[in-house]
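Task card 7
Instruction: Convert sequence to C-alpha cells.
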Amino acid sequence: MTTSDAAPRRIVQRGLWFEEFETDVVYEHRPGRTITEADNVLFTTLTMNTQALHLDAAFADALPPFNQRLVNSMFTLSTLVGLSVAQLTQGTIVGNLGFSEIAFPKPLFHGDTLYAETVITELRESKSRPGEGIVSLAHTGRNQHGEVVATALRKTLVRKKPV
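Output:
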C-alpha cells in the first residue's frame, strides 16, 4: 500500500493527560471571549440572579463608581474556566474537586474581552484512584487592557494516559 492509498492518520483534539501537565508554565488560552449584553442578561436570568446591577440599565447607570451594568461575576468565573477546557481538560478530566480563593479585583463590562491563562501549581497521583491524578490549577482572567478581572484556584481529577 502506498502512502496515498493509506487512510490519513487522525488526531482528535483533547486536553492533557495527567503526565503531560507541567508546573511553572503559563498556559495561555486563546482566543479570548468578548462579553456581550446578551451573554450577561441570559446567564443572569438563567441562574435566577435578579441583581439589578446586571439587569437594570437605569439603576446601574445611576450608581457610582461604575455607572453602568456589571457582567455577572459567576459568568466571568464560568467563562474563565471554560476558556481553559480545550487546551487542558477536554476529554481527560474526571471531574472538578473544588474551587478556592476566587476573587474579582476589577469588574467586566459589556463589550470587554476576557483572556485566560493557567498555571499548574501542583501535581500528585491519586492514592485512591489508580490511573488518575490530582491537578491544581491557578486561573487568571484579564480584560483587553491586561487588567486582572478574576482569579481562582481549582483542583481537578485527571486521567492518566491510557496504556
